[in-house]
Write a structure and sequence with these properties.
By secondary structure, the protein is of the alpha/beta class. The protein has 13 helices and 13 strands. The chain is globular.
Length: 382
């Protein structure tokens, strides 16, 4: 085809480093790069879908989602949330994509966490925006500090993305810091975009705070993928200010028409409590796996790490290995190639992650222990 070339905005769009490393896993590898729970979809959801699939209407839903599902999502977000602010999406990444698509013009700045999920910056760049990285510093335990964000805010700042519990560190941002950030953003008319996909996976006494407590018009992105072990169902949503909702739905319609209707029906079952007991049991099991992973690292590896307060990741400090083994990417590649254990290099999440590896404890404690054994063996190789 004469003159064939990529559109400028698509040039350089390749697999993320995170995905390229994860793709190295084969049957001989212990995979500690998992970004999903190794639990099945709750049996109550599967049974409910099995019973309903022959009688539910399964044609297109309304573009923004089944009204009864949107009503349930709105009610879960808060008593004052209108269902018209909700768009049901094909997973939370589409929700994030839509939210940024209606916010970002070329030249706009969006603050994104460093270290943080790499897709944030990629979507901002796709829409012509400039990602401005705000530090989640290791000396702060990788939690948000409003004082580190304030100097980065400018007249060009359109949004600030936050994620708590956080990927890749498992850190939960303190209530006081989220409240301070909300004050800064409200004064300047800047919208927060809160990625809350891990919010139900926490190990303290209280559910992590949402910035929506102080900023009711905050954009919230969420899904059932992590909290309900439903990654393949591709069911997420965004809650946006009323003024943005029509544009979000219009772009969503052009992209996918509507979220998968069987998945929407499954989500209604979840919101109606069908999976509550299994979700409670899964969280208890995840807490057990987290505690086992912490114990294994302390007893067998002797390296510092960030003890997670949420999600299912541990951020392992391998900076002391740099002189002999190189940066986190070199170490991750060496681990995958020589001792057959897949980890995610911290640099995949931004410069602030350099010197760390992300380890997932979403699999079995036995697999985690074997992975740690292989990491220790790699260090001893010459």
């Amino acid at each position: 085809m004469r003159g064939r070339r990529l559109a400028a905005r698509a040039e350089g769009l390749e697999k993320t480093l995170l995905r390229r490393i994860a793709d190295l896993a084969d049957s001989s590898c212990v995979d500690l790069g998992l970004g999903e729970l190794a639990f099945p979809t709750p049996r109550a959801v599967l049974d409910g879908v099995s019973r309903g699939i022959g009688r539910w209407p399964l044609g297109y839903s309304a573009n923004a989602g089944l009204p009864e599902l949107r009503a349930r999502i709105a009610a879960s977000a808060g008593p004052d949330v209108d269902p018209g602010r909700v768009c049901v999406t094909a997973g939370s990444e589409e929700a994030l994509f839509l939210a940024l698509s209606v916010l970002v013009d070329p030249g706009d700045e969006v603050l994104v966490p460093d270290p943080g999920f790499p897709t944030y910056a990629r979507i901002v760049r796709l829409w012509g925006g400039l990602p401005v990285f705000y530090p989640l510093a290791r000396e702060d335990g990788f939690v948000l500090k409003a004082s580190r964000i304030k100097p980065l805010l400018s007249e060009k700042t359109k949004a600030v993305i936050l994620n708590s519990p956080a990927n890749p560190t498992g850190a939960v941002h303190p209530r006081t810091e989220i409240e301070r950030l909300a004050g800064l953003l409200a004064e300047r008319g800047i919208l927060p975009v809160s990625d809350e996909v891990y919010r139900e996976l926490y190990y303290g006494d209280r559910r992590p705070e949402s910035i929506r407590t102080w900023m009711p018009d905050a954009i919230v992105v969420d899904s059932l993928s992590k909290s309900c072990a439903m990654t393949g169902w591709r069911l997420g949503w965004c809650v946006v200010p009323s003024a943005l909702a029509p544009a979000v739905t219009a772009i969503h319609q052009m992209a996918v028409m509507c979220a998968p209707v069987p998945s929407q029906r499954a989500a209604i079952l979840v919101f109606d409590g069908a999976a509550d007991q299994e979700r409670k049991e899964n969280l208890a099991e995840l807490r057990r796996r987290r505690n086992a992973a912490v114990k294994t690292l302390r007893s067998r590896l002797g390296l510092p790490f960030i003890e997670p307060e949420g999600a299912f990741y541990i951020f392992l400090d391998v900076s002391s290995w740099r002189a002999d083994l190189g940066g986190s990417l070199d170490i991750a590649l060496g681990l995958a190639g020589r001792t057959k254990v897949v980890t995610i290099p911290g640099i995949a999440f931004g410069p602030g992650g350099e010197g760390f590896l992300r380890l997932s404890f979403a699999g079995t404690p036995e697999d985690f222990a074997e992975g740690v054994r292989r990491i220790a063996a790699f260090r001893s190789l010459k």
